[in-house]
Amino acid sequence: MKIQIIFPVLALAFLDPASIAAANDLKPATFCRFVQERQDDFAWENDKVAFRAYGPALRAGKENSGIDCWLKRVPYPVIDKWYTENKKGKSYHKDHGEGYDPYHVGSSAGTGGTGIWLDGKREPLETFTGYEVIESAPEVSRFKLSFEREIGGVVYREEKTITIRLGERLFEARSVFTRDGKIAVGLPICIGVTTHDGKAEASSNTNEGWIACWETIEGSGLGTAARMEPSRISEIKEVESDERDQSHIFLIANTNDDGAIDYRAGYGWEKAGEITTREQWETYLNEHGQRDAD
């Protein structure tokens, strides 16, 4: 199944209702869809983790290309259920037994959000301007998000293809960048994980190619991370800032001859039961080698 909708800000459309209904089955499955009814979110999940990115309706706000974590602790899809119940007053910011969304993104990179690395700082592209669902099936879901922003008179664009597979805590991402419409070879890119203004404890492993944070949110531990092929990393940098949402740990890498970078990102939540300590989270990252290659 391939559903392609590349839209201007004011010309949005819903996915086919049959595709949405199929995701309500309580069997473990991957799932993704555009959520126009919640200010143009795009959300995706599998049996372990769930995420969302922000779309055109929030383009004038503080949100950008950062990625939000939805903390789930059940193996079946929850995206449609949580959005539907939230509209009826049952907030997904409170855990009713399946998980919830306590993770703050704001203007940060969240978990695995990218940016142009200019003059020693992250310059994020704005919220996505278009999407394409390539596949949404029980074993794997794949889609594209398009981002852009003019910075210093230059128009940067990113086309990010995200793949999420059943059983994996890290989604796969391949981002292709252009600069004024031309493939951006050797462009410095940062992949960030927010430290939530220093509340999270950051760590990294250069040999294994990952950055990570461990923090406690409302009494429960959360590990977040991003990783890439170690040989592609030019620098790992932790940035502290007095400005809200600007403290991160970053992977910094240059795009290849195709203007692309490949990476993975995701989380492990203590309340879900499988990852309960920082040590377990870092062991997970060490044992799950980089699968993307240029």
CATH topology: Beta-galactosidase, Chain A, domain 5
Order of helices and strands: EHEEEEHEEEEEEEEEEEEEEEH
Mean pLDDT: 91
- CATH architecture group name: Distorted Sandwich
Quaternary form: single chain
Number of domains: 1
Counting helices, strands and paired strands, the structural category is mainly beta
Largest sheet: 10 strands, antiparallel
Radius of gyration: 18 Å
Helical run tally:
3
**How many angstroms separate the termini?**
26 Å
Query: Any low-confidence stretches, pLDDT <50, length ≥5?
Result: 1-24, 290-294
User: How many beta strands in the DSSP annotation?
Assistant: 20
Estimate the helix proportion, in percent. Answer: under 10%
CATH class: Mainly Beta
What is the approximate shape? globular
- State which percent range the strand residues make up: 35-45%
Keywords: Signal
Pfam family, one: DUF4861
Organism: Luteolibacter algae
Protein name: DUF4861 family protein
